[in-house]
Each structure stands twice: as structure tokens, then as C-alpha cells.
Design goal:
Layout lengths: L1 H8 L1 H12 L9 H4 L6 E5 L13 H7 L1 E3 L5 E3 L2 H11 L5 E4 L4 H9 L26 H16 L5 H8 L1 H6 L16 E4 L20 E6 L2 E5 L2 E2 L15
Antiparallel strand pairs: 1-4, 2-3, 5-6, 6-7, 7-8
């Protein structure tokens, strides 16, 4: 990390980074900045430096617009977006989190329709309040499954509800070889979500991601009610799940 920050302070290296990040030709490395469409497609999701909290939920383009610089003629203009990005990395010592707007909606819907695809998400469990609360995480943390069931299944009717339930329960459990999970069956662990199929929908957005979904009535984990009436019950019956490869 120290080496990275030192490079960003070096004018020659910084100029090279700006040139290569902006190049649209063939490349052998992943350019998330360009693949997101540039500065408007990269959003700050989390910071460590408290002085930067005001920028969470804003794109690099918006940050650059807010940060004026003098042009040497008593006039001010917006900072170059890549300079704003690198200055931000320096100010937060490389510890910021970001969201990249890359995915194709058409590709997503094509994938969801396939009978062999199951659904999971790479999101951590999050707190709604207290010192661990982070207001600008990715909306997937609070809305992934309700969005799938409400928007893609009920509203767009991509697939029948029964197939959708399989994609988020038994199919991923079977693919990960989680014994006794994913089905409502005698001898299995009672992991059950009871929801209203006519009303379930996500409320989390990119600007306000910490919003609970609507339509979820109860969540039962290992036979204990963990969520009801819109809030956790305090029951903590969950445990780490391990595949067959663990000895």
C-alpha cells in the first residue's frame, strides 16, 4: 500500500496512469474505470477517513465537479476526474470502497432465464445501526433476492415462481454440497423464509442502499424465528456452513 501511495504522488507515474486508464485500445489488464464508462460510472461506497464521509454515495465525476482548482488565471474549474480519483485514494490511504456500473441488463436477464443457473451474492452481513453501520454499501446486501422475486419474476415474468425458488434454495445448496439444506423435507434443517409473492420487492437503491425489502414476513433459521414483523427477533441459531471438502 505504501508503494501504491508513493506512485500516486509521483507526477510522472501519475501521468502514465492517467494516459493508460483513458486508452480505449486493446489491453491485457482489466480497466474497471473505463469499463464503467469513466468517472460517472464509479461510485464511492465506503471510506475510512472521516473527512471524506461527505463523498460516500457520489461518483468520481460528481467529486471532481465539487473540487474546484485554479487555472493560473484567477479562474476556477472542475478538477480532472482522474486527478480527483487519485487524490481521493491518497486522502483515504487506499482504503476506500467503490461500486462499478458495468453489468448489462440484457445479459443479466439471459442468465436468469437459464435452468442451470443458481443465485448467490458476495455481500457481507450488515448492521442497520451502531458503529458498524455503513450507509453506502452495495444495495445487493438488502435487496438481491426480493428484487429477483419481485421485479424479475413477478413483474417481468422471466421464469415461473417455482423455478425462481429453486434457484435461490435447493439448487445452490446442492451445487455447494450442503447436506440437509435447501429443501423443506423431513430430517432437513428448518431454514424457511415466508414472504408475500404479490408484494415482495427490494427498496435498496445505490444512493440509499440500507433499506429493508418489503413483503418478507418471517425468516426461520435452524428452526428458530430470526425475523418477524419487520425486525430481527434476537434469535441467533445460525452457524457456519461447510462443504464436503472440510475435514
Amino acid at each position: 500500500m505504501d508503494k501504491l501511495l508513493a506512485r500516486l504522488r509521483d507526477p510522472a507515474v501519475r501521468q502514465r496512469i492517467k494516459t493508460e486508464l483513458s486508452a480505449t485500445g486493446e489491453r491485457t489488464w482489466e480497466n474497471l474505470y473505463l469499463d464503467s464508462g469513466g468517472a460517472p460510472g464509479v461510485m464511492v461506497s465506503s471510506v475510512v477517513n472521516p473527512e471524506l464521509k461527505q463523498y460516500t454515495g457520489k461518483t468520481v465525476a460528481e467529486i471532481a465537479q465539487e473540487q474546484k482548482v485554479a487555472d493560473g488565471k484567477s479562474a476556477q474549474h472542475s478538477k480532472d476526474p482522474l486527478d480527483a480519483l487519485m487524490d481521493f485514494v491518497l486522502a483515504d490511504k487506499g482504503l476506500s470502497g467503490a461500486l462499478y456500473f458495468i453489468a448489462s441488463e440484457e445479459d443479466l436477464q439471459t442468465g436468469l432465464r437459464q435452468p442451470w443457473t443458481s443465485i448467490g451474492l458476495d455481500a457481507n452481513e450488515l448492521s442497520l445501526d451502531g458503529p458498524l453501520f455503513e450507509p453506502h454499501t452495495h444495495p445487493r446486501s438488502f435487496g438481491s433476492m426480493p428484487r429477483f422475486l419481485g421485479h424479475y419474476v413477478r413483474e417481468l415474468q422471466l421464469i415461473p415462481l417455482e423455478q425462481a425458488i429453486r434457484k435461490i434454495t435447493s439448487l445452490p445448496a446442492q451445487r455447494e454440497h450442503l447436506i440437509g439444506r435447501g429443501l423443506i423435507k423431513e430430517g432437513f434443517f428448518a431454514d424457511i423464509t415466508i414472504f408475500d409473492p404479490d408484494n415482495i420487492i427490494d427498496k435498496a437503491t445505490y444512493t440509499q442502499p440500507a433499506q429493508l425489502a418489503e413483503g418478507v414476513k418471517y425468516v426461520i433459521v435452524n428452526g428458530q424465528v430470526a425475523f418477524e414483523n419487520g425486525k430481527p427477533t434476537g434469535a441467533m441459531a445460525g452457524k457456519a456452513l461447510k462443504g464436503q471438502g472440510v475435514k
